[in-house]
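Hey L., structure's done. Input below.
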Amino acid sequence: MMGLPTVPVLAGAVADPTELARLDDAYLWQPWSPVRRSEDAATIVAGDGCEVVDADGRRYLDARGGLFNATVGYGRPEVVEAMAAQARTLMTYGLGPASTPPAVLLAARLAGLFGEPLTRTFFCHSGSEATETAVKMARFYHALRGEPQRSTVLSLADGYHGSSLAGAALTRLPAVRAGVEPIPAGFASVATPRCAACAAGEAHPRCVVPGPEALQEVIVRLGPGRVAAFVVEPVLGVGGIVELPPGYLAAVRRVCDEHGVLLIVDEVMTGFGRTGAWFAHQADGVVPDIVTTAKGLAAGYAPLAAVTATQQIYQAFAADRVLGGFRHGYTTGGHAVAAAAALAVVQVIEDNDLVTHAAQVGRSLLQRLRAELPGPVVREVRGRGLLAGAQAGTERQAAEIVRECRRDGVLVRPQQTVVTLAPPLVLSREQADRVADSLAKAVRAVEARS
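Output:
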């Protein structure tokens, strides 16, 4: 049997960067990356506010917010102290039939934030798990109501809903589906409400944007009573930071109601102030049947996600005397320390009015980016609140812009041909200007080489 490697102990000090890189390359299987470390790989060892530090001691302004989840910033003492206090008392206890105070209080807090009828929350750990849970919940709900044939779940062709098998089935991106086929049956896509020619950067006489009638057509084509739910992001995240057209969400709500289809709104990326509203669907005046949340819920301090449903959906399960209720769950779903973190995160957002702050700082940042970035390399800047995307012409150009920003001490993220930003909601106006300056300089540098 091979001996285990000698691992440097981190006790308030940073291990040797070269040794960390060697151990990373030898033992860690990183998600969403090549098997070997790339030239862009970094080992982040510390964070404070909107900044992070790598193993070489270099400090960066983190305009990508971790993986779009560091909403209240790094090292927030209120959150850290809440987690430590809960861990000293009780780290967690399995939910169902038991519960813990933080999970109970967080469910009640979410009911207040969503408002009636979205009052029942089921906890899990990630956006992907939330998608799995919502799909099972929707199908199970229809079965309880005597319509087990309602099993097909729909999503937008450019949507993204996680990396699990159900997430892959709801997501048509090749990077998500490659190598894991066959994709589970019972899923179908709806045309995304955006101009395909614009998205491809092709010249065209007029834009053609599929509307809510595309959803209607798919439901009719699949047959009456066959569709369980339609899953949609208020702003497409991995699909390119694409806003839905005004009125689209309200229109698909009406289509779903007409056909008895549940509307599931995926707020994993957009929830908890990211778009300048507590939840993006609220700004559209729409009440979903189910909402999934994750990233901003615990702000990266602990793995936590939630599936919040209407009381009507919950009552169908509560009244069941045949199938035994919702037979679904996770060992540490609603983890007490994670729930305590989320309660503290929500309080930080409220106490500092970070929702309004995100709307205001995001508006000025987007104005600068839209004024300064478009040209030969960047075709368009899209976004809402502190969620933005700069549409480059090619994946190579997007990667080069990200690399230039990193050299300048600002971290942003490439998503195919789009450079994406989702900084912490505590981003100051001065820091927002630094992000805009760095991106503008990076784009000009890439233009000079193109």
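The chain is about 40% helix and 15% strand. The CA atoms of residues 48 and 74 lie 5 Å apart.

-- N.
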